[in-house]
Design a protein that fits this description.
11 helices; alpha+beta; globular; hydrolase; 675 residues; Xaa-Pro_dipeptidyl-ppase/CocE; eight-stranded antiparallel beta sheet; CocE/Ser_esterase
C-alpha cells in the first residue's frame, strides 16, 4: 500500500452548482491543469459526509488520483449537508436523485468537460451511483459502486431476513449527528451560516425511528431499490465489495441481473474501498477504476470489458479472531456468472445431530431449540465499518454460540471442500409462539474443536412467504421455509468438519422476538444445499496491481483515533452489554485550519430470558473549531421495547462556542408489526 504524489492538478475548494429551484450545492473540484484546453470526462462522487472536513483526506486520496490520470473529479455535498443549501430529507430520496441529474447536467456543460460522466462511491455514494444510473441520464456512461445495495429492504442497514437489525440504530445514530452539523461560515458567509444551521436543526429528524415505522417491504423501501427494475440501468457497472461487508450479495445480484456491461470483484474486506481493504490483501482498486472509466468514458480498448464477470477471492481457513490483518487465499476469475464451475453438494440434517450426505431413514426425528437471548454475541457485526483500524468487529470462536444452538456436524472432510457463492438451507419448522425468528450459521470445526464462522442466514418466520405481506405463525404448525446464506468463497480443509448451527435468537445483530420461543424441527424436511467450486477448468487468471492512492494534503494529528469494544455481563442480573466506541481522534486540516473532534459510542444491552429488556443507545459527539469558529453537536438516541411496541427517544444539543444554540427532544411509540 503506497501513496503517490500527484502533479499537474489544481483544486477548486468550492464550486457552486445552481439548481432549478434556486438552491445551490457545494462541490470541490479536482482538475487537470490543462482541462480547459483539453477537456476530459468528469467523475462524480455525491454523498452527505461534508467534503470540506468530514471526508477531506479520503477525497484527496481518490480524486487527486483520478485527476492525475486525466479526469475531472467532483465531490458534491448532498442538499442540506456540508455547505450545500436545502435540507436533508432522508437517505436516498427521489429529490436527491433529481438533484443529481441537475448536477450531471451542470458538470458536463463546463468548458473543462467532454460532456461525458462517470460516478463512484462507497456505501451511500455506491447507492447514489446505482439509483442515478437507473434514471438514465444521457451523460452517465459508467459507474463504480462499492459496498452498496440493489434492495434497500433485504440488504441494507435496517432489516435482514425481515428482522430489524441493530445497524438500523447504529447507523441511524451516526446520521442523527451528521445531519445536525452546520455549514462552514468561511464558505457560506458569516451572515448566513447560523440561519442555515437553525433551518437544519428545525428540520432535524430521528431517522432510525422513521425507518422503524416501515417494518415491511413497502413503497418506502422500493423507492431507490434498483432490483425493482434492473433493465433501467444501461450504463456500465463495476460492483465491488467484500465478504465481511454487509452488502456482499449485491455484487452477485447485479452481475447476474444487469443486461448492460457489468463486472464484479469480491474480496475478504469489510466496509471499505479495496485499496484500504482489511482483512488484506488490499488491491489496486483505483487503477481498476481508471481502467473501467478509460474503457467506457474515453473509449479506450484496454480489455476492461473482457475481464471475468466475477473475480472473487477464495479464502483459506483462518483461526477465528475478532480482527484479522490478512486473510490467506487466492483470486479466481469466473468468465460468466452464474458460472458453470459452480456446482452443488447436498447434506441432510438428521435427528441424531448428524449432517449426512444421504438421507437416513433412521435419522428422522423432531428436535427442539430455545436459545439463550445472548446467542450471537460471538458473531461479527452485520457491517464492520472500522476495519481500517484495529477493530474487533469480526466473529470469534463460535463454540459459545453453538452451545445455545441446535447443531448438526458432518464427518471429517477427506478432501478440501471449497464453498463458493450462495448456499441455501430448507427447514421444516414449527414455533410455539405466533412470532419467532431463526438464525442458521455455517461453521468450520477444526480438529481441536475450534468453531470458525463461515456465513449465516436470518429469517423472521412471520416473513416466511413475503417481506411485504407478513403473517403470524400458527403455534405448533409446521412450515417449510428456505433461507439463502450470505455469499462466501472459503475452503473447509481436509481433516475439518462442517457444522450447521440453528438458533432461535441472534443478538446483538437482530432484535429479539417479542417472547421467548421454542422452535421444533422435523428433520425429514431439512436439507442443506451448498454452493461449491466443482471445477477450475476455464477459470481466468486474476492479477491486481498494488494498492495506491494520491498523497493527501497535510493533517496534524493531536489525538490518535481508536476503536474500543467490550462485552460485559452483570452476573446478579444476567444483563449483558456490548459497548463499541469509534473515536476519530482530534486532528487539524492544515489547508483550512479546521480542527475536528468526532466520536460515536454504541451500547447494546439485553437481560437473559427477557426479550423486553433489549435496548440500544447510540451517543455521538462532533466538534468543528477554528480561531474564528466553534460549533459542536452532542446527541443520543435510545430504543427499547415491550411485547407490542418499540420506544424511540432521543435528544440533540447544538453549541456555538460552548453556549446552547438550539436543542430538540424526541419521544415516540412505534407499534411492532410482525416484528
Amino acid at each position: 500500500m503506497l501513496s503517490v504524489v500527484i502533479s499537474g492538478v489544481r483544486t477548486v475548494e468550492t464550486h457552486w452548482i445552481p439548481l432549478a429551484d434556486g438552491r445551490k450545492l457545494a462541490a470541490r473540484l479536482f482538475l487537470p491543469d490543462d482541462a480547459e484546453k483539453n477537456p476530459v470526462p468528469v467523475i462524480l462522487e455525491y454523498i452527505p459526509y461534508r467534503r470540506r472536513d468530514g471526508t477531506r483526506t479520503g477525497d484527496e486520496e481518490m480524486h487527486l488520483f483520478f485527476a492525475g490520470h486525466g479526469y475531472a473529479s467532483a465531490r458534491v455535498d448532498i442538499a442540506g449537508t456540508g455547505d450545500s443549501e436545502g435540507l436533508l430529507d432522508d437517505e436516498y430520496v427521489k429529490r436527491e436523485q433529481d438533484d443529481a441529474l441537475e448536477v450531471l447536467d451542470h458538470l458536463c456543460s463546463q468548458p473543462w468537460c467532454t460532456g461525458v460522466a462517470g460516478m463512484i462511491g462507497n456505501s451511500w455514494g455506491g447507492f447514489s451511483g446505482l439509483q442515478v444510473a437507473a434514471r438514465r441520464p444521457p451523460q452517465l456512461k459508467a459507474i463504480v459502486t462499492s459496498c452498496s445495495t440493489d434492495d434497500r429492504y433485504a440488504c441494507d442497514a435496517h432489516y435482514n431476513g425481515g428482522l430489524v437489525i441493530n445497524d438500523n440504530f447504529g447507523w441511524g445514530g451516526a446520521l442523527f449527528g451528521y445531519s445536525a452539523l452546520p455549514p462552514d461560515p468561511a464558505v457560506v458567509g458569516e451572515d448566513r451560516w447560523r440561519q442555515m444551521w437553525k433551518d437544519r436543526l428545525d428540520d432535524h429528524k430521528n431517522h432510525a425511528a422513521e425507518w422503524l415505522k416501515h417494518q415491511r417491504r413497502d413503497a418506502f423501501w422500493k423507492q431507490g431499490s434498483v432490483c425493482e427494475d434492473f433493465s433501467a440501468i444501461e450504463c456500465a457497472v463495476l460492483a465491488v465489495g467484500g465478504y465481511l461487508d454487509g452488502y456482499t450479495q449485491t455484487i452477485f445480484s447485479l452481475v447476474k441481473n444487469l443486461k448492460g456491461p457489468a463486472k464484479g470483484i469480491c474480496g475478504p474486506w469489510g466496509h471499505k474501498e479495496p485499496n484500504y481493504g482489511v482483512p488484506g490483501p488490499a488491491m489496486g482498486y483505483l487503477q481498476e477504476c481508471i481502467r473501467w472509466y478509460d474503457r467506457w468514458l474515453k473509449g479506450i480498448d484496454n480489455g476492461a470489458d473482457s475481464e471475468p464477470d466475477i473475480r472473487l477471492y477464495l479464502m483459506d481457513y483462518a483461526r477465528p479472531h475478532s480482527h484479522i490483518d490478512v486473510r490467506p487465499g487466492r483470486w479466481l476469475g469466473f468468465p460468466q456468472w452464474p458460472a458453470t464451475q459452480i456446482g452443488g453438494k447436498a447434506y441432510w440434517l438428521n435427528g441424531d445431530g448428524k449432517l449426512s450426505e444421504t438421507q437416513e431413514a433412521n435419522g428422522a426425528g423432531q428436535l427442539t431449540v430455545s436459545s439463550p437471548l445472548t446467542t450471537g454475541v460471538q458473531g461479527q457485526e452485520w457491517c464492520p465499518y472500522g476495519q481500517g483500524r484495529i477493530s474487533a468487529e469480526g466473529a470469534r470462536d463460535q463454540r459459545a454460540d453453538d452451545g445455545g444452538s441446535l447443531c448438526f456436524d458432518s464427518v471429517v472432510m477427506e478432501a478440501d471442500l471449497p464453498l463458493a457463492g450462495i448456499s441455501k438451507i430448507r427447514l421444516r419448522v414449527a414455533s410455539d409462539k405466533p412470532q419467532a425468528q431463526l438464525c442458521v450459521r455455517l461453521t468450520d470445526l477444526a480438529p481441536d474443536g475450534t468453531s470458525a464462522f463461515i456465513t449465516f442466514a436470518l429469517l423472521n418466520l412471520a416473513h416466511r412467504q413475503s417481506h411485504e405481506f407478513p403473517t403470524p405463525l400458527t403455534p405448533g404448525q409446521f412450515e417449510d421455509v428456505e433461507l439463502d446464506f450470505k455469499p462466501v468463497a472459503q475452503i473447509i480443509p481436509t481433516g475439518h468438519r462442517l457444522r450447521v448451527a440453528i438458533s432461535s435468537s441472534y443478538w446483538p445483530m437482530a432484535w429479539p422476538s417479542p417472547e421467548r420461543t421454542m422452535l421444533t424441527f422435523d428433520t425429514r424436511g431439512c436439507r442443506l444445499d451448498l454452493s461449491v467450486l466443482a471445477s477450475e477448468e476455464g477459470l481466468a487468471s486474476v492479477a491486481f496491481e498494488e494498492a495506491l492512492w494520491a498523497e493527501p494534503r497535510p493533517v496534524t494529528v493531536k489525538e490518535p483515533a481508536r476503536q474500543l469494544r467490550s462485552l460485559t455481563t452483570d452476573l446478579p442480573t444476567e444483563r449483558t452489554e456490548l459497548t463499541a466506541l469509534s473515536d476519530d481522534g482530534r486532528f487539524v486540516f492544515e489547508e483550512t485550519g479546521t480542527e475536528i473532534t468526532s466520536w460515536r459510542r454504541k451500547i447494546y444491552g439485553i437481560t437473559d430470558n427477557d426479550p423486553a429488556s433489549c435496548a440500544t443507545t447510540v451517543t455521538c459527539h462532533e466538534e468543528l473549531t477554528r480561531p474564528d469558529w466553534n460549533a459542536r453537536v452532542d446527541c443520543e438516541i435510545t430504543f427499547n421495547c415491550d411485547r407490542d411496541n418499540f420506544y424511540a427517544r432521543g435528544w440533540v444539543k447544538a453549541y456555538e462556542r460552548g453556549a446552547i444554540f438550539a436543542e430538540r427532544n424526541y419521544d415516540e411509540v412505534i407499534p411492532r408489526d410482525c416484528m
